[in-house]
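queue> holo job accepted (NAP)
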Amino acid sequence: MKIAVVGIGKIAQDQHLPAIAASPDWDLAATVSRSGKVDGVEAFTDLSVMLEDRPDIRTVSLCLPPVPRFAYAMQAIRAGRHVMLEKPPGATLAECHALTEAAREAGTALYATWHSRQADMVAAARAWLADKSLRRLTVTWKEDVRRWHPGQAWIWEPGGLGVFDPGINALSIVTEILPDAIHVTDARLEVPENCQTPIAADIRFHHAGGAEVTATFDWRQEGPQTWEIEAVTDQGRLTLSDGGAVMQVDGVAAGEAAALGGEYPRLYEQMARLVERGGLDMDLRPLVLVADAFTLGRRVTTAAFVD
Ligand code: NAP
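queue> job finished
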């Protein structure tokens, strides 16, 4: 199937283009970008021109930051195209609901991707937790923003999510692996004095089974990076580390990696199946948690951030 990638930035170059190139399902037929190109692929600078000129391209993958993405997604859906959304699926929940409604009316496939859910051991962790009683779950997501988002001003602007840009990846895993629902009860957000979005956050959640569930996100961690979820249950302690790539039970390696290597190859495989059967995959639970953390969060002003 032919696909166009819109927004040739960091994640498109690091992950989307290699995953499409290696996929048996997809053929990169066009790019839409104000500045980037891919050798040998037709390049557009305007989405509406691409939609008009290339009716043979039925699917578009949107790799833009969250704020500009809605207008692009709506335009593609109204032109009858299937749409794959980078995470988060919108800058707001209302945008996601509007896209869902539009795709339903147009009969196009719409996929809110959560790449971290495709990490090697997430499916194994979900299976392990399915019959356990959770007592405590602790998320620790600490990374160096300068290393992962060099020069990206949008992450500090309204709608850019700040530290919730990586934090939502952790929440996408948590909502996938836990059999019970959680919701935010309390949050503390540290916001640099020169930014609109937090650089660190501590969040507490209500868990339907009464377990203690907390998350700590911090973008100021230099040296080794920490992307870890620990779940203490009635039958042992599960640790998912390296963003879901490594799983241990009581300190011993456990679980089998999901088939097909890599988060983005799995996303494109799932998009292919979604297009074939038609329909929507718009799980908004991670974005609900983030929106609620912003609604309930107590803001604390912290030192200015200088990139
Ligand atoms: P980026 O490199 O800063 O931006 C991606 C592209 O979006 C830019 O190259 C630009 O494309 C386009 N763009 C930016 N602002 C725009 C605007 N106002 N209007 C129209 N186009 C605009 O960002 P990124 O790191 O790739 O992140 C994009 C999305 O992927 C985010 O939602 C992020 O959460 C997600 N993501 C990022 C990473 C990562 O490691 N960076 C990992 C996983 C997911 P053109 O110049 O080509 O027009």
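queue> The pocket of NAP is lined by residues 7-12, 33-36, 63-66, 68, 86-87, 115, 148, 152, 154, 165 (CB under 6 Å).
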